[in-house]
Amino acid sequence: MSNNHIKPENSTGKSMAKQVKIKDIAEMAGVSAGTVDRILHNRGNVSAASREAVEKALSETGYRYNIHTSAVSLKKGYKLVIAIPTAVKGEYWGTVQNGIEHALEEYSDITIECEYAFYNQFDIYSCRNSFDSIMERKPSAVIIGATFVSETVLLCTKLDKYGIPYAFVDAVIEGTDPVVTYSSDQNACGKTVGRLLDLFTPENAGIAVFGSRRIGNERANNSMVRMSGLMEYFSTCGKKREIKESKISVADPDESEKDIIRFLGENPEVKGIAVLNSRGYIIADILSGHGIQDMNIISFDLTVNNVRCVRSGSISAVICQRPEQQGFHAVKAIIRTLLYNIKEKNVHHFMPMDIIIKENLNQYREIYSE
Amino acid sequence: MSNNHIKPENSTGKSMAKQVKIKDIAEMAGVSAGTVDRILHNRGNVSAASREAVEKALSETGYRYNIHTSAVSLKKGYKLVIAIPTAVKGEYWGTVQNGIEHALEEYSDITIECEYAFYNQFDIYSCRNSFDSIMERKPSAVIIGATFVSETVLLCTKLDKYGIPYAFVDAVIEGTDPVVTYSSDQNACGKTVGRLLDLFTPENAGIAVFGSRRIGNERANNSMVRMSGLMEYFSTCGKKREIKESKISVADPDESEKDIIRFLGENPEVKGIAVLNSRGYIIADILSGHGIQDMNIISFDLTVNNVRCVRSGSISAVICQRPEQQGFHAVKAIIRTLLYNIKEKNVHHFMPMDIIIKENLNQYREIYSE
DNA sequence: TCCGGCCTTGTGTACGTCCACAAAAGTAGG
DNA sequence: CCTACTTTTGTGGACGTACACAAGGCCGGA
């Protein structure tokens, strides 16, 4: 009972990497621990000779400092600013936020202050307001859920100027220099949707694709990339499918309903619909309301409404890009950067595209909620 | 609509929790820090009165001790024994091992020694040998990948006796008391396979199911549970499908090949095959070798061979249960138990069943390899 | 040469916990 | 009431790092 632990010193033959301490490095380089510390933290005021000697010792020993003792003596806290579209519980950005908070819990023994700078993803002025406030908040690091291209580039330029690290979730914006990004390959998503639609829809039936209405021409538009992936799938799959395109309006539900019903009246051969955003449930509910049962809908994101529709069968499949994991890992990566002051090598992480159908829905719910 | 987004903690959007220290608890309870420490670590020699006062203070403040300072001053190390089937890189248990090692890296600042006790999952004697050696190794905790029921129960009884915590990955054995388990709902897996097979196989074609040959009648047999799930799917899906059953032998490849070709000769209507273990690639390769192209194979696990077949199209879909995550989380949970000496509430974790097809294969590869 | 100022380096304390050991309180027997 | 012993409690050093501050070295100008 009392001997179910081992003593660190007396390893029973197993070799254990011995921890190299700052003092060891200092001794090797012929300087004091303080100098090593200054180099490790880029605090400046170090001669070229000392720096060289210490860096040699560091790389020879493969020194990695002890995160625990580091955290113990760390005086300064960090301030994390999260600039993402308004997070609604049970929807996409709400799930991202879950992941963010989950990660912060893991670091609850370090002083990390976290501020949200939400913006309306359909309103460029709201985004500008929000992003303008970020520098005033004096962040140590920023997590960005980008929608508008030039606003984001502007923000990143400022952050770069002050050496403030930032990470992207959901979408990656060109012309920026993030520490790390978590996103999905939207083109591959489109292909996957194509494949699923193809599987679920009878061979002789038609297919329709619903995207969002474009808002401004500056938006980083995941839907459009998904669309081209979907088209690629159908142009290479060997089968001949007729593909109709349409849009749904987010703003006006009554309008949408009329549009959809009219569209289906005009295209009775359509038996499969791809909805390239998270609003598949809207179409599913409209069709249910009109007693239409034999439509196969594929949509995106495991939101509460989509979950309901997958369970009831009014949506055939949903593709999900692990928003929670995106938030979680982005925060962890950015905190690691703050602590260790090193950039990771592989900055772009692509999340898997989970395929969720009625049969495997339950296990995903457990993962994505909580 | 406007204000149902998540407010983190307080109105200013900041989240910071103040650390309650052992000294604070000691002061509140009118004892010294040493006494609090003894209670926290069940070191005994504490009067009932002190214990009561301290526990009151602990629960009032919601005290949670600082993992970093704890780790800094922790003298003892831990020894983790991993009792799983022999891990081969790129196969199921190899991926579990990846996850285990990944988790150990996260705790590289704590002294954790890790020993593997591999066994041959097809040989009950090998399992006995391996499990018999475990107590001698004086583990602080054990991670078990169980195959044989009574051997596992025996091991767990011994572990329980000495109060050594253990966790299950992949399968859960009845009559044991693990700290935590990571596994999949095999019945739901079976249903999902059924659904996929149904989608991929033309409506008028027949379907076959290949399980493993049973080895001994004591084995925890995932295949059998998957089989019943699959049957459930087809008995409730409304369609009429003819389902044939067969087995594949792991031992003798030539024998398997003959069996399969004979089977398909006798059942030419079969155009879809579910392989309820990870050996879908064997069948896929045999069929490819015989020039058979129009078979839809669904199998399990993202092994290197299955990945190759999904990419080439000879396997239509694979279901994967995140072996890496299972290993990863099991280790993290067990280490948390060792550190905090508390049991988690929800011991059974079910992993999602990822559906992998050609179109979404690449992103999963990145996740599961690395 | 001396002085002030800047650049560089070394030193010492604090962080919160663990744990060994010392001290104190309690108990029992004579 | 004293001694011997057990149970309970308090105390201080150690862990490895961060950072403030003091101290030393170097340089140019007077």
Largest interface: A-B, 65 and 62 residues
Instruction: Please trace the helix and strand order of chain A, writing H or E for each element.
Output: HHHHEHEHEHEEHEHEHEHEHEHEEH
Rg over C-alpha atoms of chain A, rounded to the nearest angstrom:
26 Å
Q: Look up the CATH topology of the largest domain in chain A.
A: Rossmann fold
CATH superfamily of the largest domain in chain A: Response regulator
Oligomer, anyone?
A: homodimer
Q: How does the overall form of chain A come out from the CA principal axes?
A: elongated
Describe the structure.
- With 370 residues, chain A is an alpha/beta fold.
- Chain A has two domains: 69-184 and 324-352, Rossmann fold (3-Layer(aba) Sandwich); 186-320, Rossmann fold, CATH 3.40.50.2300.
- Chain A has 14 helices and twelve strands.
- In chain A, the strands form two sheets. A six-stranded parallel beta sheet of chain A has the order 2-1-3-4-5-11, with helices on both faces.
- In chain A, helix 1 crosses helix 2.
- The longest helix of chain A is centred in the C-terminal third of the chain and has 18 residues, at 323-340.
- The first copy, chain A, starts with 21 loop residues before the first helix and ends with a helix.
- Chain A binds a DNA duplex (30 and 30 nucleotides) through residues 19, 21-23, 31-35, 37-38, 40-41, 43, 45-47, 50, 65-66, 68-76.
